[in-house]
Amino acid sequence: MKLYYSPGACSLAAHIVAREAGLAIDLVRVDLASRRTKTGEDYFAINPRGYVPAIVDDDGEVHTEAAALVQYLAEQAPQSDLAPPIGSKERLRVNQWLAFVASELHKTFSPWLWDAQAAESTKQASHGKLGLRFAELDRHLATSAYLTGDAFTIADAYAFTIVNWSNFLKIDLTPYPNLSAYMARIAARPKVHEALMAEGLVAAAHEETAA
Ligand SMILES: N[C@@H](CCC(=O)N[C@@H](CS)C(=O)NCC(=O)O)C(=O)O
């Protein structure tokens, strides 16, 4: 299975889930500026929308949409408990958070982070709305280690990936101590750390110590 990704983009959610699930994936880096893969393939020929993530299964079928891909990956390894059983109330809660991350966080960040032409007023509107959503998450995480309780799920992989964009845009998370602690808790997970290292977002442990 191939996962088309760009470092730190929303594809990181699928990458994290694949590692947490212990799935073998081939990472294929996409340059979003040129829409070419590292080996020079035209990425529009793989995903006509030009977006990462995309997964190309061993049968050649292409699959897209981060919220769907994390579910698919978790379901390849049900023993990993990254997603509760389909049809359960627990799964409904995970799906609610996936939808929240997709529509309230991911697509609120998008014009600010990915659209070089976005007007200042658009960026400010994004910033304001994200502040409200971060405050809501902060209240929720006061009593819960992860979004749906004590266990890390695919919703956390997606939320972590998107809230992590705050670093790229220099959004200060210190007003949200529970959200900050949640981000640190997830970053410290060995498989998450591996994914961050593989995408060049953090240095290897010995380099971090030396820095
Ligand atoms: N609806 C898609 C959106 C994916 C998306 O926004 N991908 C971004 C990276 S996080 C992208 O490829 N942006 C390039 C662009 O906007 O042209 C999904 O949820 O997977």
Written account of the structure:
- The chain is of the alpha+beta class and 211 residues long.
- It has 2 domains: 2-80, Glutaredoxin; 89-194, Glutathione S-transferase Yfyf (Class Pi), Chain A, domain 2.
- It contains 9 helices and 5 strands; from the N terminus they run E-H-E-E-E-E-H-H-H-H-H-H-H-H.
- It has a 5-stranded mixed sheet with strand order 3-2-1-4-5.
- Helix 1 links the parallel strand 1 and strand 2 (26-31).
- Helix 1 (11-20) packs parallel to helix 2, helix 1 packs across helix 8 (190-198) and helix 3 runs parallel beside helix 5.
- The mean pLDDT is 95.
- The structure holds glutathione (GSH).
- Residues 9-10, 32, 50-53, 64-66, 102, 110, 114 line the site of glutathione.
List the keywords.
Glutathione S-transferase Yfyf (Class Pi), Chain A, domain 2; 9% strand; 211 residues; globular; binds glutathione; Glutaredoxin; 2 domains; five-stranded mixed β-sheet; alpha+beta; 9 helices
What is the compact description of this entry?
With 211 residues, the protein is an alpha+beta fold.
In order across it, which strands form the biggest sheet?
A: 3-2-1-4-5
Radius of gyration: 17 Å
Number of strands: 5
CATH class of the largest domain: Mainly Alpha
Helices and strands: which structural class?
Answer: alpha+beta
Report the order of strands and helices: EHEEEEHHHHHHHH
Fraction of residues in helix: 40-55%
Low-confidence runs of at least 5 consecutive residues = none
Give the second-level CATH assignment, the architecture of the largest domain.
Up-down Bundle
- The oligomeric state of the chains shown is single chain
Shape: globular
Pfam families: GST_C, GST_N_2
Protein name: Glutathione transferase GstA
InterPro entries: Glutathione-S-Trfase_C-like, Glutathione-S-Trfase_C_sf, Glutathione_S-Trfase, Glutathione_S-Trfase_N, GST_C, Thioredoxin-like_sf
Keywords: Transferase
